Each structure stands twice: as structure tokens, then as C-alpha cells.
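Predict structure. Input: Membrane protein DedA, SNARE-associated domain, 202 residues.
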Amino acid sequence: MVDFIVEFLSSTGYIGVFLLMALENIFPPIPSEMIMPFAGFVASKGELNVIGVLLAGTAGSVAGALPWYYAGKLLGRERLKRAAEKYGRWLTISPQEVDKSISTFEKHGKTTVLLGRLIPAIRTLISVPAGIAEMPLLTFLGFTTAGSLIWSGVLVGAGFMLQKNYSEVAGYVDPAAKAIVAVIVIAYFYRLFFHNKGKENL
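Output follows.
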């Protein structure tokens, strides 16, 4: 994966940065913590402009978030509630909890989208609840762009400063991403167990 990213970016430049960051948001296993630091390293050598790299990465990240946003919008509140009613045992959520969750997102959605774009493993999927809650597109784009710009800036800056040691960035970010995924999985099984327990007691 690393060799592919290095070769692809070396031959495609800004377009490659845009495409890989778009794919990274659509297909999370492609790691932004390898894409942008290497792009920052290339910029440090003068082969690319650091501002151009930052803009290309941010634009790609926003473009990759849109399919998830529209997927959430297509799913919608009512379909999600029907799914919760039918498959609530496995989704560990009831139709009432769907309404409550969406109401909470409607109140704090802007902050959630902004901060969610800064968290590995969450930054891709945060677009889905925004679509389900029907956050206005321009609002979604604004806060997604802001969060993506910050995230890309941190990674590009790290690659620019570390230069040939740019790959060390992944060594710090990757464990955090795995820890977040582990917490999500544990939380799911915890809710699954107690959700079913509650149903049995009733």
C-alpha cells in the first residue's frame, strides 16, 4: 500500500492527492496518514507547492465525503426507524432512540461534523448522520471543508517537517484509529447484550 501511494503521487501530483484523498473517504482502508505526509514530504523538496497539496487534499476529502452524505440522505429518518423496528435486536437501537439521536444531531451537528473530520475511523462515517438528519448541503460542505482543511494541514505539516521520516506519522495515528475501532466494537457488543437483556426482562 505504501509503495503504491508513493509511486502514484510521484507520477500524478496534485491530481493524485485529490483522487487518493477522495478514495480514502469512500474506502477508509486507504490511509490519509500516509497520503498527506508523503505529499508534504514531496512539497518540502520543492516538487509540489505546499498550498496546492493542502487544497488538493482538502478538496478530495470533501468530494469523498459527499457519497456518504447522500447515502444517509437516501436512507432517511423514516427508513432508519423502520429498520430499527425490524432489526432493532442487531442495530441495538429503537425507533424512539433514532428520533432522539437525530434531534441531538440537529442541535449539535455542526460541531459534530467539524470535530468528526479530525478523528481517525470516524471522519468518514460522520457524513452519514449528517445526511440522515438532512443537514443543509452548504452547511455540511462548510464544516466538512473546515475539518478536512485542519486534518490535511496537520498531516501535510508533519510530512513537511519530518521529510524522509514522513512514514512515522502513520505510526502515531494508526494505533489511535485501531483503538477507536476497538472501542466502537466493544460498545456495540455491550449494547447488543444489554439491549437483548432488557427485552427479555420486559
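The longest helix spans residues 50-91.
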